Amino acid sequence: MPRSELLHRLAAETARRERAGLLRRLRVVEHGDGPWLETGGRRLLGFCSNDYLGLAQHPQVIAALKRAADDEGVGSTSAHLICGHRREHAMLEEALAEWTGREHALLFSTGYMANLGTLQALLQRGDTCVQDKLNHACLIDGAQLAGAELKRYPHADVAGASRQLQSRPDSAALLATDGVFSMDGDVAPLRELAAVCTREGATLMVDDAHGLGVLGDDGAGSIRAAGLGQREVPVLMATLGKALGCSGAFVAGSAALIDGLLQFARPYIYTTAMPPALAAAALAAVTAAREESWRREKLAALIARFRAGAAELGLALMPSPSAIQPLQLGDAQVALDTAQALEQRGFLVGAIRPPTVPKGQARLRITLSAAHEEADIDHLLQALNELRRMPGAG
Ligand SMILES: Cc1ncc(COP(=O)(O)O)c(C=O)c1O
């Protein structure tokens, strides 16, 4: 048998995906102005970004980036452990630890790398990693990279999580869950999962990429909103690229956790530190997220307005209290067609299809932001209503 030619095989897989109507396509956004996006010569109202608090274009965040770039240049020039760890990184880590009520925090260049690095440092071959079926891809990939036994439980099923832990009682175990699920918008049953972990002697890790800034007092995230702290959830990961409007991520927890990650998390060690100006911008974003609570209040009011309007129209919203308000459509082609019809009416909304979500659960991932206005929500609802009334609509 001749060897498979790798590029041919890849091209064949891409063609297969295209035939299934599941090809992913890139779009160039020429300009962004709050939630408004210019693309293909048109100006569209976006309901697809993760800029939940509208901080990506906050004047103080932009000013902090410019100031630090003027002073320090663009690149960090090295990995953290050589000479890339600058004052801006140290100050941001301190602010993140304080905000989330933890001893220390450690920056990573992306959330994907933070999850890979944390799982790979904590887990060894033979350990157990129990995860919610709907966890983000990078948590799943991290467990596989670590060589741990990956055991998944049905979405938000606490008894299922407990059973998975009990199935391997003698191995060291980590239970990892999204705090807010990225494609569904619902919040994990954190108090119940924490109780299971205490009972079973497992360590709980929460990826709060979509909770930080949005939920909890002070925007400290889903763990704080559940009344839990570092003792119950020893490992917190969150990103800087969503509600904080920047880019990058961090892990926060005990001094022992952070010291260990610094030694053993390969995606932390063997990569260039994020630009110091980006860390300075993220620090300004943390301050704005904490102090400008009107952003959280406005977002909550917009979420309530959208949900009430959608309920009146009889739309199949999912039970989500967060800025992620998916509209379940089922069929991938229907989701794509609906997103295209919305685009014709001036809205940009992401159609999420398999393999990102399970087969038969394609949806529009509608995301709201404090940068939206009430009228924006009303216009979207009006467009959804018009589409529903079109002949052939489901
Ligand atoms: C739950 C969750 N974790 C991690 C990530 C990865 O973060 P980043 O975009 O910073 O790599 C994402 C999305 O991007 C996410 O939704």
Please give the structural blueprint.
Layout: H1 6-19, E1 31-33, E2 36-39, E3 42-46, H2 59-72, H3 80-84, H4 87-100, E4 104-108, H5 111-122, E5 128-132, H6 137-146, E6 149-153, H7 158-166, E7 173-178, H8 190-200, E8 203-207, H9 222-225, E9 235-239, E10 249-253, H10 255-264, H11 266-269, H12 276-291, H13 293-313, E11 324-330, H14 332-344, E12 347-348, E13 350-352, E14 362-367, H15 374-389
Parallel strand pairs: 3-12, 5-6, 5-7, 7-8, 8-9
Antiparallel strand pairs: 1-2, 2-3, 4-10, 9-10, 11-14, 13-14
The protein binds pyridoxal-5'-phosphate.
Short description:
With 394 residues, the protein is an alpha/beta fold.
Largest pleated sheet: 7 strands, mixed
The CATH topology of the largest domain is given as Aspartate Aminotransferase, domain 2
The CATH superfamily title of the largest domain: Type I PLP-dependent aspartate aminotransferase-like (Major domain)
Please identify the structural class as seen in this structure. Answer: alpha/beta
**Total DSSP helices:** 15
Q: Order of strands side by side in the largest beta sheet?
A: 4-10-9-8-7-5-6
Annotation, overall tally of beta strands: 14
**Rg estimate, integer Å:** 21 Å
Mean pLDDT: 96
Tertiary shape: globular
Low-confidence stretches: none
Order of helices and strands: HEEEHHHEHEHEHEHEHEEHHHHEHEEEH
Reading off the top of the CATH hierarchy, the class of the largest domain is best stated as Alpha Beta
Oligomer: single chain
How many structurally independent domains? 2
β content, as a range? 15-25%
Work out the helicity level: 40-55%
> What's the architecture of the largest domain in CATH terms?
3-Layer(aba) Sandwich
Distance between the termini: 49 Å
Ligands, deduplicated: pyridoxal-5'-phosphate
Cofactor: pyridoxal 5'-phosphate
Domain Aminotransferase class I/classII large: 44-384
Protein name: 8-amino-7-oxononanoate synthase
Catalytic activity: 6-carboxyhexanoyl-[ACP] + L-alanine + H(+) = (8S)-8-amino-7-oxononanoate + holo-[ACP] + CO2
